[in-house]
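Title: Request for sanity check on Putative aliphatic sulfonates-binding protein prediction

Description:
We are preparing a figure and want to confirm that the structure record we downloaded matches what your pipeline produces today. Could someone re-run it with the sequence below and paste the raw structure tokens into this thread? We only need the token string, no images.
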Amino acid sequence: MISRSRRLTALLCALTLSGAAALTACSSDTAAGGAKITLGFSAWPGWFPWQVAQEKGLFQKNGVNVDLKYFDSYTDSINALSTGAIDGNSQTLGDTVASVSGGAKLSIVLVNDNSTGNDKVIAREGITSVADLKGKKVAVEQGAVDHYLLLLALQQAKLTEKDITLVPMVTDQAAAAFLSGQVDAVAAFAPFTSKALERTNSKAIATSAEFPGAIPDHLVLGEKVTKEHPKEVQAIVNTWFETLAWIKDNKDAAIDIMAKRGGVSVAEYRSYDSGTSIFTKQQNIDAFTPGVTPQHLNFQAGKIADFMVSVGLTAARPQVDNLFDDTFIKAVP
């Protein structure tokens, strides 16, 4: 099964190695003349519609030449964007804020979805609440979005990370370790939640549904790409909504495509529906509008920036004021 690491720290590391200048330089070359825009995506239900767009010829229909690149490792897609090997990527808000902290110039142009249950903290039999994790072994990918979910859940239960034994592992290995009984709990995302829940009498004791808006997923492009190739970016955003309409009218065929891309059965894929809330155009507009509630991206970005400082991922609070570009959403027909 495929892997979606969803790391907050990967892009910080990559930028340290390659320098932020590589992002704009290489992205400009890739998209030169509007001939081609290379987009990355990886294993997450909210991003699989891109596969539908490709297979049904919807990019071409909207007059844009897209090289859609699938990454088995989400971390690799983050690194590819940071070095300019691709022009855009589907990634979480947390990873994007991390890249901004490292010096990248990026623009979020589209909200794909919010995680509304497909990120979970799953525990063995006998552990019935997050409070019961005190003193227990919990596997999670450090710096990843499910690490953030775990910390939110612990805080809600009046615990901290010091109250548990954190076992750092990449997400697929963490789910396997939990299934084999090596740890007491795991924080993971779909599709690895399905594997973890195969452990007898295991259950989710916290999910992203309890923290509305905390885990939004986006289409992120190099800032230079949005400035130099707005026509192509607009066509890609338009294609996203046309794809959602096609999926609505052809749900069975769409699920077949997306389940195959995800390496899961159709039945498993259908089980993810309620845990990933795909955003409409209006929900996008509302999210991009500045505000002080969890539905607003600027609010969530601020919370994530504070989280990064509190856990030592960055010394200075990232500046996210210019991260959100609602130009293309507002121009969708």
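Thanks, this matches our download. The two ends are 37 Å apart (CA to CA).
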